[in-house]
Amino acid sequence: MRGMNVPEVEARAVPDEAFLLDVREHDEWRAGHAPAAVHIPLGELQARVEEVPADVPVYVVCRVGGRSAHAAAWLNHVGREALNVEGGMRSWAGAGRPMVSETGQDPFVA
Length: 110
Hints:
CATH superfamily of the domain at 25-94: Rhodanese-like domain
Domain Rhodanese: 14-101
Distance between the termini: 25 Å
Structural class: alpha/beta
Mean pLDDT: 91
Organism: Planomonospora corallina
Helix content: 10-25%
InterPro entries: GlpE_sulfurtransferase, Rhodanese-like_dom, Rhodanese-like_dom_sf
Pfam family, one: Rhodanese
Number of helices: 3
Protein name: Rhodanese-like domain-containing protein
């Protein structure tokens, strides 16, 4: 998707009450995610798009920002207002934003 123009925001600029959509895979989600995030893996997004609100901005996050940029571009194409969280969950954690883990493992181990 070269040439796409998806607005990006820094992790620390995501409002606490924002609709945060995490498009990572299930194992990445379990390793660590934002407490209020909604999890829809990128591969399931088209089938589950009705779960994404059309009346509020949607902040889309993945591990480092690539998958979420694609998801945000597609969501904008289908009428949502989507913004990519620059740097993904790595930036989220780096900004000291809250995270929860279901596994206790480091979510950023390769």
